[in-house]
Amino acid sequence: CPGAAVPTVYLLEGHDVINAFAAGMSPSDAVIGVTEGAVRYLTRDELQGVVAHEFSHIFNGDMRLNIRLMGVLHGILLIGIIGYYLMRVMSGSRDSRGRDGSAFLMLGLGLMVIGFMGTFFGQWIKAVVNRQREYLADASAVQFTRNPEGIAGALKKIGGLPNGAAIESPAAPEYSHAYFASGVSSFLMTIFASHPPLNKRIKRVDPRWSGHFVTPKALDVETGTANSSTAAPKIEEKKFVTALVGDAFLAIDMMGQPGQAHLEHVRDLLSDIPATVITEAHDTQGAQSIVLALLADADPAIRAQQWNVLHSLDNSTIMTKTTQLVDAVRQLPRATWLPLIDLSIPALRTLSLPQYEQFKNAVMGFIKADKKLALFEWVLKQIIVRQLDMLHGIQKPATAVHSYLGAVKQPLEIVLSILAYSEQVNVEQAQVAFDAAKKAIGATAFKMVPRADITLKNLSEAMEELAKVKPLLKSRILKACVWCVSSDNEVTIAEMEILRAIAATLDVPLPPILPEGMLNKV
Fold it and tell me: Is 0.85 surpassed by the pTM of this model?
């Protein structure tokens, strides 16, 4: 989906059932798992519906909610376990016949009642909440794919399989609420069911359903002859100007909810990227080379310094691929650079820690070669390096602590200032852009930071502080940024790239700003 980090997808081998799950604490570290049965039995459209359902869980914060619920419930259960062991120890002790012993026995009994009753009702509440989130995810899958038959077909095939969606694993019950369909069964299924009944889910997506499930047959994955239940709508060919001018505020309002126009726009951008480059983006070493090629400087002297950094990697494959790709990548339309980065991230996430550290050193070496603050270099660093740092535990996710603008006055002044300077000809015009932003959010005490005082380091530090704001404040910050870049009634590609980097740091998926001709299609 446009504006979101592409999650890594894993195949769960040995599970001949139809199921899937999403896991992670945020969109930047999310992964999706799909069973072997889903790949075997589902058509392309049905599999898209399943994956879109899991995307919804990522966008709507369900993963974080599920993990928190698991932690709270285990904490309540631990109270009961402590009470159980306290009673067990005291019942076998001679002191239990005394006054103090009886008190400890009663304390243990009380803890058991609190713990186990709390767990019972907690599990019931979790089940009720999760069933509603499943309905929301089904509806979102229809919104993302524009094809209700996809997810409905997958649910019908689950009902037609002998084992349905059951996951054969001792750990399956612990994470059953995160599956696409119920992966476990129990005698308390009606009370603690983590998913709504299949027939109710299908009826909401396909009201005309006859009530009969479908017995799936294995599809020919090699030829893909049965892998398309409905023909994909033909997208009219469009060519876009390189400067993205449009309603930036619409993109803010649709955070996490890309429309069909956004999807069509991204398809058109990807069509401008050669197939050979897209193939390299899916390869671990090719993805590294693409990132380094995007950072390659036009100045031969500076590029020579960057090649020296490559030589120090002692990796001839990356060196060769980077030199081969640099011309093709640098000649791509500027509007395709961010989509190309998004395509490369899944491959980069498979790097081991030593491989990533080597790649990171190369990226930072390329960035520092010209000893200047280049905004695209900062954008790329925020989108790629920050995300991979979190994946490898080098950097921890920010804890939300700031709930009002005054708490982030200084870092927001730096960010708005760099946005104001990004495309303005002189300081006076930059001041107009900055004033428009602070007026829009009522931050009258904010002052523009001189350009000379802004460095790559303090800009990154400012963004890390902004990452600590609470969710309700994030949209205000992004709207202030949009006011700043649109003060001249247009949003350029460079400005959109900065907005995207800011949104990525705030952990908010931001759809692309559409060209004016497509705004009426949202």
Answer: no
